[in-house]
Write a structure and sequence with these properties.
The chain is 64% helix and 0% strand. It is mostly helical. Helix 1 packs antiparallel against helix 2 (29-46), helix 1 packs across helix 3 and helix 2 (29-46) crosses helix 3 (57-75). The longest helix has 19 residues, at 57-75.
Amino acid sequence: MKNIVSHDEIYSTYRDKVFSYIKNRISNYQDAEDLCEDVFVKVYEKLDSFDEKKASLSTWIYNITKNTVIDHYRTNHMDLEIIDNYDYPQEPVDEEPDEETLQFLAQALKQLPQELRDLIVLRYYDELSLKEVAEKMKMSYGIVKLRHKEALFRMKMILKDKI
């Protein structure tokens, strides 16, 4: 792997995505920058152990990022409520879905009840956090989390054989 992709290519490709992920979970900008750099140190140190048969590079980097944020909260004895967000990872996407996939997603979305459809649109199209979705839909955060899981599960079942 290290011969195929240089450290510079990895950093330039994933830095903004990693930083955005961390910044959405860490309120202090300087801490977020430090953690972002920690992620890339770990990536470079572990690059020899990366196995593309097990996961894509983006997924592997995402997992390192997620674990770095969790470690930050644990070592600083902070409230681990942030882990709730890991039920719904914001994995960096390497490419745009093709037209056929978009059509399948649109069809699946139409099969959901209106409330679940609205939730998915607010979460992924409008890119709101689950807390923002809860405020906008005038629902509790806990209910939105449950309905979000339900919506994703239903879509997964609808799309099971299509994608």
